[in-house]
Design a protein that fits this description.
Largest sheet: 11 strands, mixed
Order of helices and strands: HHHEHEHEEEHEHEEHEHEHHHHHHEHEEH
Structural class: alpha/beta
Number of helices: 17
Shape: globular
């Protein structure tokens, strides 16, 4: 082998890995071994990976043999990918949503997207830690904590920097180069937030683009899986692999003719020359001086690259609040359905049984409480009142939200800061988002000597439903003009 894998896989992208395997410079088995070695060495510092797939090496060997005999399946053949711990895999890995109640749970079958990834030749390397129950258990639970896995830490500053969102383990692992990429899930900010805080690219697809079958749910109207990676190119490749129509997820029935199996065709370096981007200033108001400076610099990049920037843009919706009744109803309904299908030897098969289990094991299961689980169990909506409240909840977002702003100014996208505040409107409508690294900030991070410690920050591009091709083009053009991504220095943490 002519390359030193331990050095090379740090920041290697999927295209480079595929070329190296095709040329014989490395194998999928060697890649898996290299990542497993890095997980054993660095994961204790950041706690991002819950478990390694015990079959990963055998899968990689079989894919290497297949490559040499019948050829490659495509751009993801032999690539090691992590999955968030709420995504079912029918193998020797557990699926627990970070809960000790499901720590021994094996899924009865693959989730739709796990099956799609296997078909594309991906090696499912392991499961990533996450905020327990996708951060819908307690308002007091910190991002990145689970009773099964403990605290996820940001490799750019463990214990000092925010990890954000429930896909924090997926993001921290990719940032630390413990896997080539990962799949997370988002209800409201849980892909985009962690990707932004770990200097990564994250795509939250339109709800209905990728199936939720076999994913432990929060909200049927807002949940979606999506890729987290080091580059826009890698994220686009992964997105194409997980989209598709699933007869078991009605949301995907709306996506025929709006789904593409190769989003890399939209990697247009010069797209910003013809783009129109709006700046919703309401979501910039709470930024500290340094992060506001990062955003102002990003706006200048847009202009320098030839984009037409409309600043400011108003959405007339900024003060409209989240409706907990709707989300609690969806969570209870979806979780009861999921838990009822678990193996009979599992200790919980309903939300009520989960609440009781947590109370009985409070010392380990209830470090931060479970008020959201209880609130959901007590939710009194029926299907009729739920539909009425959901319509009431969504109507302002439809009439005064993203489409309204884009239509008013003839925009391709909005540009938001990489925190979670600006993501709720897109979440409520099931609309897509993509984040790209934009700069470093020292906000809220002071080391033991009282000195500021820098941390990552991203920009987020928001568009209308099924506008992933446009958002990918904008994000790629911005990325190539800036190339802000740089890895954490894990050597300093040893």
């Amino acid at each position: 082998m002519s390359i030193n894998l331990q050095d090379w896989i740090q920041e290697a992208d999927l295209v480079s890995m595929q070329k190296a395997m095709s040329s014989g410079e490395c194998t999928s088995e060697a890649l898996v071994l290299a990542y497993i070695e890095r997980i054993h060495r660095y994961n204790p510092l950041i706690n991002a990976v819950l478990e390694i797939n015990p079959d990963a090496l055998e899968i990689a060997r079989n894919l290497d043999l297949e490559r040499n005999t019948t050829g490659s399946r495509g751009p993801l053949h032999g690539i090691p990918i992590l999955l968030k711990d709420n995504i079912d895999t029918h193998d020797r890995m557990h699926t627990s949503a970070g809960s000790i109640a499901l720590a021994e749970s094996f899924a009865p079958e693959d989730s739709f997207i796990a099956a799609k990834l296997r078909a594309a030749g991906v090696v499912l390397l392991g499961k990533a830690n996450m905020t327990e129950w996708s951060n819908f258990m307690s308002n007091r639970m910190p991002a990145g904590y689970s009773s099964r896995g403990g605290y996820v830490l940001n490799p750019y500053g463990p214990g000092k920097l925010f990890v954000s969102g429930s896909s924090s383990g997926s993001a921290a692992a990719v940032a630390a180069n413990l896997a080539a990429a990962a799949i997370g899930t988002e209800t409201a900010g849980s892909i985009i937030g962690p990707a932004s805080q770990h200097f990564l690219v994250g795509i939250k697809p339109t709800v209905g683009l990728a199936s939720r079958s076999g994913i432990i749910p929060i909200s049927i109207s807002q949940d979606t899986p999506g890729p987290i990676s080091k580059t826009v190119t890698d994220a686009a490749s992964l997105l194409g692999a997980i989209v598709g129509i699933d007869e078991n997820d009605k949301a995907t029935w709306t996506s025929p003719h709006r789904t593409f199996h190769d989003y890399t065709t939209y990697l247009d370096r010069d797209f910003l020359r013809k783009a129109r981007v709006g700046i919703p200033r309401h979501y910039y108001r709470s930024l500290d001086e340094e992060r506001l400076s990062i955003m102002e610099s990003a706006i200048e990049v847009l202009r320098e690259q030839g984009a037409t920037v409309i600043d400011p843009v108003d959405l007339h919706l900024e003060q409209h609040t989240w409706n907990n009744d709707v989300i609690c109803y969806e969570f209870k309904t979806g979780l009861n359905r999921y838990l009822s299908n678990l193996n009979s030897d599992m200790p919980v098969h309903s939300l009520q049984e989960l609440i009781v289990y947590n109370q009985k094991h409070a010392s380990s299961a209830l470090k931060f409480g479970q008020e959201n689980l209880i609130r959901s169990e007590l939710n009194a909506l029926n299907e009729v009142t739920y539909q009425l409240k959901r319509q009431e909840y969504n109507h302002p977002a439809v009439t005064q939200g993203i489409d309204y702003a884009l239509d008013q100014h003839g925009l391709d996208a909005l540009m938001l800061p990489g925190d979670i505040d600006g993501m709720y409107i897109a979440a409520r409508l099931g609309y897509p988002l993509i984040t790209v690294p934009a700069g470093y900030s020292a906000k809220g991070t002071i080391d033991a000597d009282g000195d500021s410690t820098q941390g990552p920050f991203g920009v987020v591009f928001s568009g209308r439903a099924f506008s992933e091709p446009t958002l990918i083009s904008i994000a790629y053009s911005f990325e190539q003009a800036t190339l802000f991504r740089r890895p954490p220095d894990l050597g300093e943490l040893m």
